[in-house]
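The aim of this short unit is practical: by the end, you should be able to scan a pair of folded records and say something sensible about each. We start with the first protein, listed as its amino acid sequence and then its structure tokens.
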Amino acid sequence: MDTKVAPFSLPRWRFTTWLCYSGPDVPDDIRVALIGSLFGTLPIFAGGVLNTIAVSVAIDLRDPSPAFIAWVVIEVVLCSARLILLVAAHRAARRGEPTFTDIYLLLGVFWGASVGYGAFISILSTDWVAATLSCLSAAAMVGGICFRNFGAPRLVGIMILLSLGPCCIAAAMSKELILSLTLLQIPFYLIAMSIAAFRLNGLLVSTMKAERENDHRARHDALTSLPNRAGLIHASQTRYKTASDSALKTAVLYIDLDGFKPVNDQYGHEAGDLLLVMIGGRLNALKGPEGMVFRIGGDEFVVTFSALNHEEAAAFADRLISEMSASFALTAHVSVNVGASIGVALIPDHGTDVLTALNAADKALNVAKAMGKSRWSLAS
């Protein structure tokens, strides 16, 4: 899956990893995207911060007791720390550095507990104006918690529990019998919102997996599973951007098979397809850990890899021609032989990007084919 959003670090602590669990078999790139959603944007974050601080300050002005003063202090400290960490995390993500995800998640849990603490002491104060205001604030925060944290449904459940759970405890301790209704309301609300968070998360993961699969299909050859021409274009825009003064070059080899059509004609298209898959596998084994193999046409392949100079690229082309001339066993009783003609170009010598170098390699391929089969030619 492709994303233009700077990546945020995955959690490393056992507790925070558990909080962000999104189900089995979730690919790492989707997990990273879900973690990114937890950091949200500054305006959304500011709305929640201003609400909780304003409510705590208003109630403290009404009843400046030590418990309410402590609530104000806790809110200011926690919200300030979360704001500083949020800004720092976004900057770190843009630089590709760790984003303090574990601490950020833990502060979110503490913030949920601070909201619950405020509701708890407000109810026990028997000031029903303060209790109403704090409980409304806690309930309003639940919507924000679900909206901002749908990427981690367990985190949603924990934060709702810590925000509204203390209301149940305070209601049980209160002498007001009518407040005992919260012992039924809040648990059902907690369960309903948690289920909604899990379902939303599951829907989101399914959608992201579908997008990921569609993106993979668009950029990969259905037969060989190798990147196709669209994958080559994407690689040229993201992976291969070699500066002209770099000592390391990128070799681009444009490969056209010799003798593939007779195999197709003699043994059928199924045998031809199997041969293409085997050729892709052989090229993958030759390219090295940093190289890439693309199938961009019927029997046309492209291999890219890092090379120090022309001689290293030439040596690889020689090796490739030798390996490609070895027989391919299609069945226990049928083996076939094909060859490869290759055009070789290098970045930045023959172009500053893969596509420009590929055009040069295509012209060199025509020269190689004109000289005969199983040859390579370097772009001029």
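Turning to the second protein, read its sequence before its tokens, just as you did above.
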Amino acid sequence: MFGLRAVSSIVALCFAVAVKAMPSSNVTLGSGSPGQAFPPTPDLTAASWIWTSTKGLTGVAPAASAFRLTVFPGTAFNALGPSANISVAISVDNAYNLYLNGKLIGSGLDWESPNIWTINNVPTTQPWVFAILATNYVLALNSAAVNPAGIIASFVASSASTQKAEFWSTGPAPNPQWKGTNLAPDDFASTTLEDSAWPAAVVMTPYGGGPWGRPVPVPASLCV
């Protein structure tokens, strides 16, 4: 395995996340519309694959890259109330660590086995910083095969008390824009990191496109 940090499996837990103050230079989300079931399930079919460049489609060197997104629930999610439950469906080629506000939420080692992670009782009074450390593995020596790299993820923030939900995914506008770098600093997941100079992540292809095709399997929920 290559990259700045080893990607390891952990047992998923539902837990409340303490949120710290952070820079206010990132995106603010708009509204979504809830589905029939409640709480809604994040849907990867509405998302797109992203990476630091379109080279993720055709093959990149084995390495770890870092991605960040800051969400401002106080203005976009007023209808949710003082806290929300966040569910994240995610698949990363090849492996990932997912963080919220500097805390490790979960890890995955196989893009063909996406996961759903749920974090309960996240305060909506301060921003949320999502961070992903994505690791692209080396292929077999002397292999001529394409070595693609990409992230696809979908998010739902919901409140049982208000029966409201908000949705967003990796993808083009109106989804918020992620930032990504191949030079991940040690504190890439920190809420206090200044990421205004990070380049925007590139939207490569919608679900079903590129070397990943379809269908990506239905994610397995890792928190009940």
